[in-house]
Amino acid sequence: MDNSASSTAAAQRTHHRTAYRICPLCEACCGLELKLARDAAGGREHIVSIKGHADDVFSRGYICPKAVALKDLHDDPDRLRAPLVKRNGEFAPASWDEAFGEIERRLGQVQQCHGKGAVGITLGNPIVHKLGLGLAIPRLVKSLGTKQIFSASTLDQIPRQLVCGWMYGHWLSVPVPDIDHTDWLLVIGANPLASNGSMWTVPDFRGRAKAMQARGGKLIVIDPRRTETAAAADEHLAIRPGADAFVLAAMVRQLFVDGLVKLGAAAPHVALGAGGLEALREALAPFTPEVAAARSGIAAADIVRLTRELAAAPRAVVYGRMGANTQSYGSLCAWLIDLLNILTGRLDVPGGLMFPQAAAFAANTQPGPGARDGKGRGIVTGRHHSRVSQLPEVLGEFPSPPCPKRSTPRATAACAPCSPSPATRCCPPPAASAWTPRWPHSTSW
Prior knowledge:
Blueprint: H1 3-11, E1 13-22, E2 31-39, E3 45-52, H2 65-68, H3 70-75, E4 84-87, E5 90-93, H4 96-114, E6 121-123, H5 131-144, E7 149-151, H6 153-156, H7 158-168, E8 176-177, E9 184-188, H8 192-195, H9 205-214, E10 218-222, H10 228-232, E11 235-237, H11 244-257, H12 277-284, H13 289-296, H14 300-312, E12 316-320, H15 322-325, H16 330-343, E13 353-354
Parallel strand pairs: 6-7, 9-10, 9-12, 10-11
Antiparallel strand pairs: 1-2, 2-3, 4-5, 8-13
Helix pairs in contact: 7-16, 11-13, 11-14, 11-16, 13-14
């Protein structure tokens, strides 16, 4: 459509109504104010503009470029507006009745031929941002009966959830930094200025970080790259990729060396002696600042200084995310980060690492034994394993990287009751050449 045609089409639309929604693209779920117009002929609605909803109690009018781009996504001529069904090797538009009919015809055949596990399901992160999907998806997964489940979580956050399950008794008991009240914030392997705080949910991180700095607070970033967050920080320390665990271990060790361990509110929940803190101290003894410096590229003096600053600040907190999780020592990094917060008395106190309490359905607010006093039920992993790599399930899911390694059973030409006719068989014939994995499994699991 040329400019003159676009102008004519726009002129034929009149402001119809204002709608208030949330942005579904990340967990921040920022509030949106949408101006909508309808075609003069009474056709479908069009988005005229998108801006932040100033009265949203959480995002307070903030939105990032992703939310503004929703208008382009909505109006994109390539956007799917009807189901597609593959016919003769090509996807073709179909009605909803046709699409569901095709699913009904083939899905049962595939599972009858190859078992429940022949069907895999991949879940995207907007599912948890929509109440309807959140209610429907668990029923769909249960009805399929498959163990081949993958999600956006298995790509970048399972190490964090695994550690929270081990330490706090539930996958979703995830404490987050209280940025609005802290004086000292260390960010390692994360870029909240771009992500709005992954597994933290902090819209307008830039504004909140500036407010912290304005009241005398300090923001430090450890990251191999000078990210947007690093550029806005008071200090940026470039680290060798994958060496985060060495720096974190050296910092925890330094707390013991300097006698800076102060459990605070966590004291009743921390084991002491040979089976607790003493065992931790002994395990970390080899990870001196000098050893960490050789592995990470961060000077030993800086590692010691950061540890002492963390312990001395009136209110402080350490936060790490994707860069610290999607690596060989992902779960170890998540554990060490929480240890730094626990051992300096920053857990469950204002300005430190605090547990959010949702209005409903959260592990620490729903009724049940131990829920109100913070006692989780514990977690279980490894109830089944992926077919090729034999990786254990965690949170009922497999890590997504092994997908190309054929986690689901391969269809074969001889699998009864598949019909030999291409028109009626439930699965494609086997490839003529041997199948080769595209990459090894991720060691971050």
